[in-house]
Inverse folding.
């Protein structure tokens, strides 16, 4: 795994009231309570012995950090704190450092390459994870950065998804590419959209997709067809395949990465709805198990509530530390 790139400046906002770190910390409050209430109780007036380490591992697993990451963290405690009396704050600080070490290599921004013109981002995930709103938020951010964006309503069987994306396109000034009719061929739509986007000089094209997992084989074929057809326009597309995960599903997110990894070459992750979840620890499990870049995380409905993922900030926020 290559070393983590430095997060962009906006991902390192100071913890001022109303700043990104404050929103992130507030969004992670449920996850923080689930994790720290259990962890700090283990070490009250007690040395860090084998029994305490075993309890710690069980607690971390229960907080959705996953078996592999939990074991790694406990090993870190064993090497640096074993046999010592530790305070609650020392436990939290050490935990945050161990978690940041796991998250650091995957904290990489989704870089839009202007030379692609357009840079094609295929957005995949189970229905209900927040694909459409993630596209909308990214589109607004790209527009604010001076880029020309296009939205492709590739989830053609879901009229609500098409309508929602159209509303967001109008709000953000993005070029909108709707299906000719409900249930139209998503691959053909993507082909036409990319052809037009090239001609019009768009910088980035965000392609929504279906997420119906009840028939995995059909979905796999549909996604592969989209990729196959758009490569007739640009043999290097899609340039990014962004998998959107809903944090409230906890360990189910791990299974979704496996499923979509079998279908398409996922290049990075977006984790949404952290503010409605006590399962924010799953990001640590994902980092440890897959090593895929975590590009952005979301803690609210506004466009500014989806921001580049920063390992240090996330680890501190997860433990409720400033």
């Amino acid at each position: 795994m290559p070393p983590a790139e430095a997060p962009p400046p906006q991902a390192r906002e100071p913890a001022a009231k109303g700043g990104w770190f404050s929103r992130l910390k507030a969004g992670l409050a449920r996850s923080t309570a689930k994790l720290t209430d259990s962890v700090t109780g283990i070490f009250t007036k007690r040395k860090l012995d084998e029994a305490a380490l075993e309890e710690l591992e069980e607690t971390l697993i229960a907080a959705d950090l996953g078996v592999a990451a939990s074991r790694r963290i406990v090993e870190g405690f064993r090497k640096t704190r074993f046999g010592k009396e530790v305070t609650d704050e020392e436990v939290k600080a050490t935990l945050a450092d161990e978690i940041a070490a796991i998250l650091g290599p995957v904290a990489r921004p989704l870089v839009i390459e202007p030379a692609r013109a357009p840079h094609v981002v295929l957005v995949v995930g189970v229905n209900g994870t927040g694909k459409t709103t993630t596209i909308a938020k990214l589109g607004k951010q790209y527009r604010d950065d001076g880029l020309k964006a296009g939205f492709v309503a590739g989830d053609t069987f879901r009229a609500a998804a098409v309508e929602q994306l159209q509303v967001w396109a109008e709000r953000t000034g993005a070029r909108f590419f709707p299906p000719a009719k409900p249930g139209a061929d998503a691959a053909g739509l993507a082909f036409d959209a990319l052809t037009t986007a090239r001609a019009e000089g768009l910088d980035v094209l965000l392609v929504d997709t279906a997420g119906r997992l009840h028939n995995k084989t059909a979905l796999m074929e549909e996604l592969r067809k989209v990729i196959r057809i758009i490569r007739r326009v640009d043999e290097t597309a899609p340039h990014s395949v962004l998998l959107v995960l809903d944090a409230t599903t906890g360990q189910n997110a791990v299974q979704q990465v496996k499923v979509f990894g079998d279908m398409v070459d996922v290049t990075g992750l977006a984790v949404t709805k952290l503010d409605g979840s006590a399962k924010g620890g799953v990001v640590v499990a994902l980092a440890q198990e897959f090593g895929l870049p975590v590009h952005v995380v979301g803690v609210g409905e506004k466009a500014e509530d989806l921001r580049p993922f920063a390992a240090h900030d996330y680890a501190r926020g997860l433990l409720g530390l400033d």
The mean pLDDT is 90. The longest helix spans residues 88-103. The beta strands are 119-124, 149-152, 175-177, 204-207, 240-246, 268-272, 294-298, 306-308.
